[in-house]
Amino acid sequence: MANRRTGFTLIESLLALLIGSLVMLSVGLTVQQLHRDQTTGMIAATQLDNAILHLTDERRSAQYISNSSSEVRLSMKPSEGIAKVHTLKASRGQLMLSTIAGGYMPLVEKVSSAQFRYDKSCLIIELVLFNHQHVIRQIVLPMGEV
């Protein structure tokens, strides 16, 4: 009679370990990507909230002048000084506040596009991030003069 042993061969055990490790690797990478996407959205929202605080600070007295769908013109007058026209727009992967003289201040990173609407003293900013998340904020800004 033949001596039959029950159990798995070494090849079958190694194959099962390989398949199991591939499954665990794919789950780990998926969780890591989800965490990164969530963190990116939270960072962008925090950066946008800080930008709004900067724009609505009483010492700067920002006022709305005009906008297109891709940029907004604002008049900002420091507590001591002359009013300067600034442009808020998405460019080079950032939401930035720029001046006519050419300088700029990056406000939010990893922005693929931005849309702006002004309605009844309220500026609505909608950002689309590189990971396709949307961040929307509203700012109360008075109408300014050109």
Automatic annotation (TrEMBL):
Pfam family, one: N_methyl
Keyword annotations: Competence
GO cellular component: cell surface
Main location: other
Gene Ontology process terms (BP): establishment of competence for transformation
Highest rank taxon of the organism: Bacteria
Compartment(s): Cell surface
Protein name (Swiss-Prot/TrEMBL): Prepilin-type N-terminal cleavage/methylation domain-containing protein
Organism: Furfurilactobacillus siliginis
